[in-house]
Amino acid sequence: MGVKKVLLILAFLGFLYLDGLPLCTASVVHNYTYVLKETNFTRLCSTKSMLTVDGQFPGPVLRVQKGDTAFVTVQNNGKYGVTIHWHGVKQPRNPWSDGPENITQCPIKPGKKFTYEVVFSNEEGTLWWHAHSDWSRATVHGAIVISPKNGTSYPFPKPYAEEVIILAEWYKGDVKEIIDEATATGADPNVSDAFTLNGQPGYPNNCSIATTYRLRVIQGKTYLLRLIHAGMNEEMFFAIAHHKLTVVAQDASYLKPINTSYVMISPGQTMDILVTANQSPSHYYIAARPFFDSNAPYDNSTTTAILQYVGNYTPPSSPSFPTLPKITSKSAADNFTTRLRALASKDHPISVPTGVDERIFITVSVNQLTCDKAVCGGPNNSILAASLNNISFSTPKIDILQAYYRNLSNVYESNFPNRPPFLFNFTGDSNDNLLLPSTGTKAKIIEYGKRVEIVFQGTSIGNPENHPMHLHGFSFYLLGTGYGNFNKTTSPKTYNLIDPPEVNTFGVPKSGWATIRFVANNPGVWYMHCHLERHASWGMDTVIIVKNGTTSATSIRPPPANLPTCS
């Protein structure tokens, strides 16, 4: 493969306009080549061919420093079109390289290539990249490690070593065939057959013990674990037997340290975790299993790795296993997520908008559409769907960014509403009359520089569950969450405006609400969707378009010359 990293120091000082503040920067350029290709892998006693980058699962690590730029040339030697998304990278003024298929670009066709310009700004810590076409991200994903700039350091003692830990899901079948079949029939797609930790299912999964991933540590040393949830449809509890975890960052933004015995992490999220090897030399299980509080189908299996101390000792016949919360333990999930607070220090400040120019209220629902054929696979002969503000998103054939930039008609509508079409008891009413959404390709237009607040309201329609929502092009402040219906008078009184976490992916609680706030200072077309892949496939998506500002420095950059063509 060509993870060819060429470091070219740009001998200039520039000013990056970010969050309204000019930051003096010296930029470094990295060049990578990623080759998409089919590769055979054996897991759970069977072998299959699957799409990978450079024949690796997980894929290669992209390493940069804060403020760098990476040019990544993706050569598609696979069988179908694919795009790559750089999850959590804001890409200032550069939506052309953001990646979601038919939102900001059309797919890279087999035999073709495209060079992404990945522009890093104030991100520092752990992010990740993944395919953004159908369900191909199940096998096409990898870590992004963003180190502090030269002359700066972590806001905690430098660890002895770092290790990337990626949680993912394993399907014995072909993931594209699985979602294509579900889409054709309107049924729920098959659940995964196992979870993986750094590509291996581990104990207690069939044919997996010998290949279990091992993290080797030296007694007395502290390690930085860069934990990434690349899984498709389940949130996860994660723990290490007899070892405390200290969470110091989420989504490449630093947190006030959280000491805990476990974490709960949603698909799309990343966490930086310190762990000290302070136990007797031995083997200890690292384990992850779902948090799932819904009636929908899910994979209830466990994935493991082994924390293995270096040295001379007799390893145990059966390593110690961590105590993980029950799969349905909402209280355990809440006890972790409600502790997240931004570090908000002098060296890592935050800037929470105190006023609001644009208020948006979005209902988040699982729905059903009327069957359009003789037999459909959803409940009561329906087609499973999902929606935001009762609109199930229809992905266009031409990417929305190109249509917006070139003023092409009949691709999308610019009338995504600021509130649902009608009000009801969102978390108490599951009347079948509420199941049927409208369909369309609607975008929300926001003026540059506006201070935006979005309240996401879960509903009891269909199978309610937690929804990890992700907005491209921004990180934002998670001001608060709660259960029941959002109350515009009392709920804002619970907001944290002092040190809310700055994130790019957050959970809307089952039958509850979550509020985010940000400044719309990144012009472009930005995808917003649930990061449970089946919900995104069903239409739990929309697009936010931030208009240009008044200067060229606050406007979308011109498109690259080699954009993939649409057909």
TrEMBL record:
Pfam families: Cu-oxidase (PF00394), Cu-oxidase_2 (PF07731), Cu-oxidase_3 (PF07732). Keywords: Apoplast, Copper, Glycoprotein, Lignin degradation, Metal-binding, Oxidoreductase, Repeat, Secreted, Signal. GO terms for cellular component: apoplast. Its cofactor is Cu cation. One of its GO terms (biological process) is lignin catabolic process. It is found in: Secreted, Extracellular space, Apoplast. Residues 37-150, 164-311, 416-548 form the Plastocyanin-like domain. InterPro entries: Cu-oxidase-like_N, Cu-oxidase_2nd, Cu-oxidase_C, Cu-oxidase_fam, Cu_oxidase_CS, Cu_oxidase_Cu_BS, Cupredoxin, CuRO_1_LCC. Residues 1-26 form the signal peptide. This is Laccase.
